[in-house]
């Protein structure tokens, strides 16, 4: 098949670690024998290039210095804080529309896979219909949060989804939001992602047992990640034992988190690693004593659509503590594949961390169960095969959906 993928963010170079799950999806489709092209916005004027053999067509929507809508902390977080960036969405959509139309007319693909269908569905729907291209819309949750409190925008997204040939999403939580918008009988395929970092191999890496316990948290440093609650919980952890927290990633909340760390005098216990390579990330996962993911519902009502970093942690046999919000419950089943705690509750977070760090047998059991679950439910070959079925117009059976989990996000 000829496949075009449209989205707001795609790696800017071979070394760029952003949206690794989308990069992996495109690369696997290409390696499966499909003709794959990505259309994404330019960032600070960057031009067309190739990632893992996949051509990436960049559309320009302003002077290079202004092209900052995407990447880093993500467009929704940026637009919410800047009137200028809100205005940039107009040339963004117009330029994207022209780019998609031009490519579809020349390439005549079989399918166009539109990620974050608001606003990218606006760019893609008419070009797809004019060229007879099948439209598959893929929701991640952020687009639903954007339109939630705006009736007009909600109507636009509803129309775009209802007039797509198929709709996929990353979790049962995102599916529930789509059916709330489009109706209970609206068909949605749940197709999550797998791990994109080197998975568990016992390489003999051992940390000094006398060293502080290593806690790891990954992802964009944005409001919905809930990092202030983790920082607030650190003193209660340190009162029980030495710990060292590594935070990877960048985002618009980084300075605020660094300020909070300084105010509490925790600088020697917290490390901001920034964006790290897949190899370094794999090393951090393998050597961490515990992976902690304190995600919340942010001030816009947005929360974790799935939590791919949780899958990465499970795939590296790490015990996990997370908050039971959004799509996280598809990955972490309380007491089975990890521990769930209430969001925005630093006391509960500290208690759960202390209990697991002091119970190595339970930690190891959770890690083993989580690893087995990741291998079976978040298997890339299986996910890729189901995605191709959707692209072809077949009915996907949603075999990668997580089984039902307990409703109460409490420490087991």
Descriptive tags:
412 residues, 14 helices, Rossmann fold, 41% helix, 6-stranded parallel beta sheet, alpha/beta, 14 strands, 16% strand
SSE diagram, text form:
Elements lengths: L1 E5 L13 H12 L3 E7 L7 E3 L2 E6 L15 H5 L3 H25 L3 E5 L1 H15 L2 E6 L2 H6 L3 H12 L3 E4 L2 H11 L6 E2 L22 E5 L9 H12 L4 E6 L5 H10 L6 E5 L3 H10 L2 E4 L14 H8 L4 E4 L15 E3 L4 H12 L2 H18 L2 H13 L20
Parallel strand pairs: 1-2, 1-5, 2-4, 5-6, 6-7, 7-8, 9-10, 9-12, 10-11, 12-13, 13-14
Antiparallel strand pairs: 3-4
Walk me through this protein's architecture.
With 412 residues, the chain is α/β, with parallel strands linked by helices. The chain has 2 domains: 2-190, Rossmann fold (3-Layer(aba) Sandwich), CATH 3.40.50; 213-374, Rossmann fold. Helices cover 41% and strands 16% of the residues. It contains 14 helices and 14 strands. The chain has helices spanning 20-31, 75-79, 83-107, 117-131, 142-147, 151-162, 172-182, 227-238, 254-263, 278-287, 308-315, 346-357, 360-377, 380-392; strands at 2-6, 35-41, 49-51, 54-59, 111-115, 134-139, 166-169, 189-190, 213-217, 243-248, 270-274, 290-293, 320-323, 339-341. An 8-stranded mixed β-sheet has the order 3-4-2-1-5-6-7-8, with helices on both faces. Strand 12, helix 11 (308-315) and strand 13 form a beta-alpha-beta unit. The radius of gyration is 21 Å and the shape is globular. Residues 395-412 have low confidence and may be disordered.
């Amino acid at each position: 098949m000829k496949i075009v993928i449209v989205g707001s963010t795609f790696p800017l170079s071979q070394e760029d670690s952003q949206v690794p799950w989308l990069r992996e999806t495109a690369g696997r489709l290409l390696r499966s024998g499909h003709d794959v092209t990505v259309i994404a916005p330019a960032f600070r004027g960057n031009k067309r290039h190739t990632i893992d053999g996949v051509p990436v067509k960049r559309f320009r929507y302003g002077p290079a210095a202004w092209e900052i809508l995407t990447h880093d902390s993500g467009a929704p977080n940026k637009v919410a804080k800047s009137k200028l960036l809100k205005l940039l969405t107009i040339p963004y959509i117009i330029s994207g529309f022209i780019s998609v139309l031009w490519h579809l007319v020349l390439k005549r693909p079989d399918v166009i896979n539109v990620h974050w269908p608001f606003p990218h569905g606006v760019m893609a729907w008419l070009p797809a219909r004019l060229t007879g291209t099948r439209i598959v819309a893929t929701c991640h949750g952020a687009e639903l949060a954007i339109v939630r409190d705006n009736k007009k925008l909600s109507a636009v997204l509803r129309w775009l989804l209802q007039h797509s040939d198929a709709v996929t999403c990353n979790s049962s939580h995102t599916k529930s939001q789509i059916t709330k918008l489009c109706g209970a009988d609206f068909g949605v395929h749940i197709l999550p992602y797998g791990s994109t970092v080197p998975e568990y191999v016992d390489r003999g890496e051992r940390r000094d047992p006398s060293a502080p316990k290593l806690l790891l948290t990954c992802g964009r440093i944005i409001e919905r990640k809930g990092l202030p609650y983790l920082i607030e919980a650190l003193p209660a952890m340190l009162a029980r034992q030495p710990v060292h927290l590594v935070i990877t990633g960048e985002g618009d909340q980084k300075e605020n988190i660094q300020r909070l760390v300084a105010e509490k005098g925790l600088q020697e216990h917290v490390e901001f690693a920034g964006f790290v390579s897949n190899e370094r990330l794999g090393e951090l996962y393998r050597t961490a004593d515990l992976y902690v993911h304190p995600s919340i519902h942010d001030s816009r009502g947005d929360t974790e659509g799935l939590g791919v970093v949780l899958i990465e942690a499970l795939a590296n046999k790490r015990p996990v503590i997370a908050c039971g919000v959004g799509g996280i419950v598809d990955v972490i089943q309380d007491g089975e594949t990890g521990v769930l705690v209430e969001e925005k509750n630093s006391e509960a977070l500290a208690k759960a961390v202390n209990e697991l760090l002091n119970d190595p047998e339970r930690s190891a059991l959770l890690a083993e169960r989580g690893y087995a679950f990741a291998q079976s439910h978040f298997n890339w070959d299986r996910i890729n095969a189901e995605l191709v079925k959707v692209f072809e117009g077949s009915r996907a059976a949603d075999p990668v959906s997580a089984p039902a989990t307990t409703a109460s996000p409490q420490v087991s």
